[in-house]
Amino acid sequence: MKRKLGWLIMLVTILSMLATGCGPKGVDAIVGDLGTKLEKMTGYKMNAKLTLQTGKDPQTYDVEVWHNKPDFYRVALTSKERDITQIILRNQEGVFVLTPHLNKSFRFQSGWPENHAQVYLYESLVKSILDDEQRVFTEEDGKYAFEVKADYQNRSLTTQKIWLGTDLSPIKVDVMDTNKNVMVTVEFADFEGDAKFDNDSFNKERNMETSMLQSSVPTMANGEPKQEPTGSFGVIQPTYVPEGATFTGVQKVDTAEGPQIVLRYKGDFNFTLIEERPKAATVSYPSGEIVDLGHTVAVMTGEQKKTLTWTYDGVEYLLTGDLPEDEMISVAKSTFNQIGK
Question: Is residue 156 located within the same domain as residue 296?
Answer without folding.
Answer: no
